[in-house]
Amino acid sequence: MKKTKFYVVWQGRKTGVFTDWKECEAQIKGFEDARYKSFDSLQEAEAAIQRNYWEFVAKKDSKPAVQEPPANVGRPIKNSIAVDAAWNTATGDMEYQGVYYATGDRIFLQGPFKDGTNNIGEFLAIVHALAYLQKKESDLPIYTDSKTAMAWIKKKHANTNLALTPRNKPLFEMLQRAERWLATNTYPNRILKWETEYWGENPADFGRK
């Protein structure tokens, strides 16, 4: 008799616990930087979705959760801003924030927004940080753990497949303003990838995994 597996998707088109591989595969196939893992019981899977993906990768590979960074990765720059977003799998609500890495002080917090996505939140957080630093005439770098958001920033366009609804109309209006800001402004700030595997959790993480 085939053993039932339970699949946790931390980062994909949809996140959550799935009991069917085909349904899980639909969320992760072709999705950049997808994060998922199978579990033998529903109880394990439901507990895992509330925790950090990297904890379970470390267990699988028998490596510490935070590894010594190789020379080409190095250490993060303390004098910087880190941004992150959180998406509620139950409600679809999204929020994002930015913190000053050296002290952990929160600089901004936006949301929650209805019917959002994590990628949209990550994108808006970067633009928000850029606009904030421009007003401060600061060239501080910005850290994000989202490759997707970094690609969208480079293209100056949020390439989302999210459907417009009455509930998320304000969010789409924010996206338009963010894209317009990118199209009409230049900035000296570097946008850097936060290397979670080596540095631990993003300083702007909401701590709800």
What tags apply to this protein structure?
Ribonuclease HI, Chain A, Nucleotidyltransferase, domain 5, 2 domains, 5-stranded mixed β-sheet, 3-stranded antiparallel β-sheet, 8 strands, globular
Low-confidence stretches: 59-66
How many separate structural domains?
A: 2
Q: How many runs of DSSP E, i.e. beta strands?
A: 8
CATH superfamily label of the largest domain: Ribonuclease H-like superfamily/Ribonuclease H
Task: Report the span from N to C terminus.
Answer: 33 Å
Please identify the oligomeric state. Answer: single chain
CATH architecture of the largest domain: 2-Layer Sandwich
CATH topology of the largest domain: Nucleotidyltransferase, domain 5
Biggest sheet strand line-up: 6-5-4-7-8
Query: Main beta sheet: strand number and arrangement?
Result: 5 strands, mixed
Strand content: 15-25%
- Quick one: CATH class of the largest domain? Alpha Beta
| SSE pattern, N- to C-terminal | EEHEHHEEEHEHHEH
- Shape descriptor: globular
Count, helices: 7
Tell me roughly what share of residues is in helical segments: 25-40%
Protein model, in words:
With 209 residues, the chain is of the alpha/beta class. It has two domains: 6-57, 3-Layer(aba) Sandwich (Ribonuclease HI, Chain A); 81-193, 2-Layer Sandwich (Nucleotidyltransferase, domain 5), CATH 3.30.420. It is built from seven helices and eight strands; from the N terminus they run E-E-H-E-H-H-E-E-E-H-E-H-H-E-H. Helix 4 (118-135) crosses helix 5 and helix 4 crosses helix 6. Residues 59-66 have low confidence and may be disordered. Belongs to the RNase H family. It catalyses: Endonucleolytic cleavage to 5'-phosphomonoester. InterPro entries: Ribosomal_bL9/RNase_H1_N, RNase_H1_N, RNase_H1_N_sf, RNase_H_bac, RNaseH-like_sf, RNaseH_domain, RNaseH_sf.
